[in-house]
Amino acid sequence: MNKAELVEEVASQTGLTKRACRQTIDSITSVIADSLASGEKVTLVGFGSFKVRQRKARQGRNPQTGGKIQIPAKKVPKFEPGKNLKEAVA
Question: N or C, which end of the chain is more exposed by having fewer CB within 10 Å?
Fold first, then answer.
């Protein structure tokens, strides 16, 4: 499911306009991204948690040349599904 399909599904389930649903989804994703950028964890009880994880620096390989390269440490977003989501998928 892509964003347009999500907007359409939410609109059909709630009776809201597609425009209102798109704005709401954009706001939710923006708030989650801003919270993660500031180091906060976002928990939606039953659905899951979004948090930032630190990846260590590591040795890698350039696929074109085969030479070794150093891959720097970086922060990456991580999602951990909640109990209800795990049960719904299983």
Answer: C
Closest-CA residue to 39 (of 56, 57, 53): 53
Predicted confidence (pLDDT) per residue in 39-79, tens digit: 999 999 999 999 999 999 999 999 999 999 999 999 999 99
CA dihedral 82, 86, 87, 88 (to 10 degrees): 100
The values of phi and psi at residue 62, to 5°, are -75, 120
**Residue carrying structure tokens 């948090």:** 51
CATH 3.40.50.11030 for domain 41-90: no
Contact 13, 5 (CB under 8 A): no
Nearest CA to 77 among 18, 22, 25, 34?
Answer: 34
